[in-house]
Design brief:
The chain is of the alpha/beta class. It has 13 helices and 11 strands. The model has no long low-confidence stretch (mean pLDDT 97).
Length: 320
Amino acid sequence: MSKPDIIVPRVMRDVVMRGLAEHFNVHKPYEAADPFAVMAELSQTIRGAAVLGQKVDAAFLDQFPNLEIVANFGVGYDNIDAHDCSARGIMVTNTPDVLTDEVADTAIGLLIMTVRELSAAERWVRDGSWKAKGAFPLSKATLSGRKLGVLGLGRIGKAIAKRAEAFGLEIHYHGRSKQKGIAFPYHATLLDLATACDTLMIVAPGGEDTHHIVNAEVLKALGPSGIVINIGRGTVVDEAALAEALADGTIHAAGLDVFEHEPNVPQALLDLENVVVLPHVGSASVHTRDAMGQLVVDNLVSWFRSGRAVTSVPETPQKS
C-alpha cells in the first residue's frame, strides 16, 4: 500500500521529521526555491499536514481539496480555522497534556521572578552594581498573602493553581462557565476576577473571543499592587494599555512570556523596569518539545491507520 502524502510547510523538530518519514511521503516546500510552486504541484495528492505556527485558513485549505487532517504542533491552535476545517470534514489535532507540567513550572517561575524582581537582581550582580553600589534594593512586592486569579482553568490552569496553592496563594478563576468539582471561587466576569484578586495569571487561548480582554478596565481593577503574568497568548492582553498601566502605577508589575506580534515586543514594555520578559519559552525544553513532536506524528499515524486521531480538538470531533 502506498504511503499517504503529508505536507510540512515549515521546519519542524527532528523527532517529527523522522517519525513522519517512516510512515508517509513527506513534502517540505520550504526546501524549494519556490515553495508556492511546490504546493501547487502537490495540490491533489496531499492528504495530511503537520504545522507549526502555519496559518491554516480558507486559502490554505483551498489548495488541498483532498486534505483529511491538520496536525498542529502546540496546544494552542488559533493559527488554524478549526470551524472551517470542521465544515469541510477535516480533522484538526493539537498536543495537549504533554506540555502541561513544563508550562505550569514556567508560569510559577515567571511569577516569582516578577514579584521578587529576580531578573533585575541578577543584572545587579552581572553589571557590577553589587560591588559598586551595595545590596540590591528590597523588593517592593511579596508572594505572601496574594490572591491569584487564573484566567483559563484548563489543564495548564489547573496545574498552575495546584503549584500556586503549595505557595500559600488563594486561588480564584474565570472561564466560560463554572466547572463542576472545582472548589476555587468562580467569577462570572473577568472584571469581577480582577477586582477580587491582586494577581492575574493568563492561561487563556488566543482568538477573537479573547482578543484584548485584559484591557485598561481590568488592569485598573487589579489595583496598584496588581501583577499580571501572561503564559497564554499575547493577543489576550491590550499591550498598549498594559504599558500605560505599568508606567503610571495603575499596577505594580508584569511577567510576560508571550506577545501579540512575536518576536516583536513593544518598546514601551521593554523600557520599563517593572516588566519581566521571556521569549515564549513556556514549553521550551528538549524533553517537552520532543514529546509534543511525537504526538504530532502519533495523531497522523493513528488517523491514517484507523480514521481516528489521538487528540482531536473540540471543533472537529472524532468520526462515529
